[in-house]
Amino acid sequence: MSDVVLPGELDVVPANEASWDDIRAVFGTTDYPGRCQCRRYKVLDHVWNTSTPEERAAGLREQSGCDDPGARSTTGLVGYLDGEPVGWAAVEPRTAYPRLLRTRVPWTGRRGEDKADDGVWAVTCLLTRRGFRRRGITYGLARATVPYARAHGARALEAYPMLTTPGVEITWGELHVGAHQVFAEAGFREVSRPTLRRAVMRIDF
After folding, report:
1. Please, what's the b/e burial string for 172-194 (b: 16 or more CB within 10 A of its CB; e: otherwise)?
2. Tens of pLDDT along 169-191?
3. Any idea what the CATH number is for the domain that residue 92 is in?
4. Within a domain: 161
C-alpha cells in the first residue's frame, strides 16, 4: 500500500459510534499502540507503571464508550478508509489527561492559563493502523479534531507534536503525538517550543 490518502477520503466518526472490534483492529497488540492503548496521558505514573496491556485495553474500551452511539461522552475519533478502520485520534478537554497536566509541556512560555479550564481541549495521540502507515492518514485525523472539538464546546484546541527532520527517523512511539507539519496543515499555529524537539500548537475558536 503506497497511495497517499487525502484528508477528504477519510471518514472520521466519534469513537462511541465505532465498534470495539474496529478500535481493537486499529490499536493491534504487537507494537507501541498495543502496549499503550492510549492510556499514557489518561492515568498517573503509578497506575501506568503497574498496569498490563490488557488492563489498559479495558480502560480504553470504557473511556471510548464504543458500541454506544448514544453515549454521553467519548475519548477520541476513529478514521475509516473504504469502510476499514485505519486510524485513531485522542481528543478531549485537556483536564481529561491527568498526566499531561503534570508535565511542563503545555505550560512552557505560556500566559498563566488555568489548568482547570475545561474549555481548552487537547489532541494527545494520532495513530495509524499497522499496514496503513506512511500514507498520510494522520493529516485527515488531525483535521477532523478541529470541528469536533469546536462543536463540543471547546474554545481552544491544542496539540503537542514532534519536530521532524528530513532523513532523520523518529520511532513511532515518540511520534504518537503527531508531527508538526500535520497540525500546521490542519490550521494549528505554534505558540511555544518547550524542548528542542517538541512544539505546542493551538487553535483559538
Report:
1. eeebbbbbbebbbebebeebeeb
2. 666 567 889 999 999 999 999 99
3. 3.40.630.30
4. yes
